[in-house]
TrEMBL record:
This is Rhodanese domain-containing protein. One of its GO terms (molecular function) is thiosulfate-cyanide sulfurtransferase activity. It comes from the Eukaryota. It holds the Pfam family Rhodanese. Residues 371-471 form the Rhodanese domain. GO terms for cellular component: cytosol. The keyword Oxidoreductase does not apply. Keywords: ATP-binding, Cytoplasm, Metal-binding, Multifunctional enzyme, Nucleotide-binding, Transferase, tRNA processing, Zinc.
Length: 474
């Protein structure tokens, strides 16, 4: 891209930044305006309060003091805004008042966190904290409803907070623009009554559960992958913590799969917000000791009693004989703890990695391409990845089909070898990053075809080093 294009991008970024600042200022102005209205409303209700002796007499007759029953804190504005809540017999004024006195921390402002934060802001929690250390990217906008294009490149915590303030300026919204870790999370969590795990990340799931167990805070935990989701409530009303269920991480708990249908975290996030409301208002029966599963393909919900009583007493964190302290917690390396489970689920062939000399860099492959030398570029990603984006003239053979298609492939490869007269490598494999293409080279060599090579760093390197316009979907 030329200098003109760079200047245009800089101007667009500046416009987006200014718009974001304007949105934030608008939100703060609305917040203070609402505070002003609340003060005026509070003063009016105070002047209409019944004299104490009359109120006592009416109380003895079984009548309610209108100020105590309705006001107890709800201004005229609040009554107008939350009238649909107030009309719910089980919820009513008391439920709304409890909600307005609650403070909730949402950790993660992605797909789950967006749905949670928007609902909690609109339903009128007292204080809402949003913690996230990442910035908004274009790929977030398909399912993370709290972010807008104007905030691309800006912190997610600030973006989500601005949207929440815009929806309900009477809620105190705090943005924590940082990645919560064992060293800093205690001080943040201490400030709130209820914590919501919206990180969709195994290390954070263990860390937040341990933190909430230490500080005795309820934790509403949700997670999604692909077209499925699940949620439960930990550490509330005697319910277990995450470690009670999974003392140590296993490979089935974590996944590097980034595929997700945007609406699925929306569904789970809404349900997490519902659990927050139930806990804050003491209305209903929170999902304590039970796990809810959602299958988007069949629209099936299933709730199972996941927990056995025995797991509670033996838990290393919340069990009877636990010696897990805040100091232990702050020294604990959650990334390493959960990484061990990831490493155990690598497919076997990747253990037989080739020496890196067998590959070419993406720039070297570009020179091969430009030279016009006859060769084949075989892309071993899954077909649906190949359909998203691919290098021109590459051929897709998904890795799991390679062995099956080898006999026919070898015929085609022999022709290319003949044309190249053995002067250069006629076959290159490419995948998204590295592992799969190396496995493909290995398979070919094992089957008597030594002329294959792969592109180091795969398409990620290609997009970074050679073709900046290559669509990045990972
Ligand atoms: Zn436990």
């Amino acid at each position: 891209m030329g200098a003109g294009g760079g200047r245009t991008e800089a101007i667009m970024r500046e416009i987006a930044s200014l718009r974001a600042q304007r949105d934030e200022l608008d939100g703060r102005i609305r917040f203070f305006e609402a505070q002003l209205r609340l003060r005026v409303g509070g003063a009016a209700s105070h002047t209409s309060k019944l004299p104490p002796n009359l109120s006592t007499k009416l109380g003895a007759m079984g009548a309610h003091d209108a100020t105590a029953a309705g006001g107890g804190g709800l201004s005229a504005d609040m009554v107008r805004r939350y009238s649909r809540h107030l009309l719910l017999p089980d919820f009513g004024v008391q439920g709304q008042r409890r909600l307005s006195q609650s403070s909730v921390l949402v950790v993660g402002a992605g797909g789950l966190g967006s749905a949670i934060a928007l609902h909690l802001a609109s339903c009128g929690v007292g204080s809402l904290g949003i913690a996230d250390g990442e910035n908004v990217e274009l790929k977030n906008l398909h399912g993370q409803m709290t972010h807008t294009e104007a905030y691309i490149g800006q912190p997610k915590a600030k973006s989500a907070a601005a949207m929440c303030r815009a929806i309900n300026s009477s809620v105190k919204v705090f943005d924590h623009n940082l990645k919560l870790k064992a060293k800093n999370v205690l001080n943040v969590v201490r400030q709130y009554d209820i914590v919501v795990d919206a990180t969709n990340n195994l290390a954070s799931r263990y860390m937040l559960s341990d933190c909430c167990a230490l500080l005795n805070k309820p934790l509403i935990s949700g997670s999604t992958i692909g077209l499925e989701g699940q949620l439960t409530v930990y550490n509330h009303n005697g319910s277990p913590c995450y470690r009670c269920l999974f003392p140590n991480p296993t490979s089935c708990q974590s996944s590097s799969d980034k595929s997700i249908l945007g609406v699925v975290p929306g569904v789970i996030g809404c349900l997490q917000a519902l659990e927050v409301i139930k806990i804050a208002t003491h209305v209903g029966e929170p999902l304590c000791g039970r796990m809810l599963y959602f299958d988007a393909l069949t629209s099936h919900f299933k709730t199972v009693n996941k927990i056995h009583e025995s797991s509670l007493s033996t838990c290393a964190v919340c069990g009877d004989n636990s010696n897990f302290t805040e100091d232990t917690f702050m020294m604990f390396d959650y990334e390493s703890f959960t990484r061990a489970s990831n490493s155990s689920k690598q497919p076997l062939p990747s253990l037989n990695r080739l020496p890196r000399t067998s590959g070419v860099t993406s720039r070297e492959y570009k020179r091969v391409l430009d030279s016009g030398r006859p060769h084949l570029l075989l892309d071993v990603r899954p077909e649906h990845h190949f359909q998203i984006a691919s290098i021109a003239n590459s051929v897709n053979i998904p890795l799991h089909e390679l062995k099956e298609r080898l006999p026919r492939l070898k015929d085609a490869l022999s022709e290319v070898v003949d044309v190249s007269h053995g002067k250069h490598r006629p076959v290159y494999f490419i995948s998204q990053c590295d592992d799969d293409s190396q496995v493909a080279v290995h398979i070919l060599r094992e089957n008597g075809f030594p002329y294959a090579s792969d592109v180091i760093g795969g398409l990620e390197s290609w997009a970074q080093e050679v073709d900046p316009d290559f669509p990045i979907y990972w």
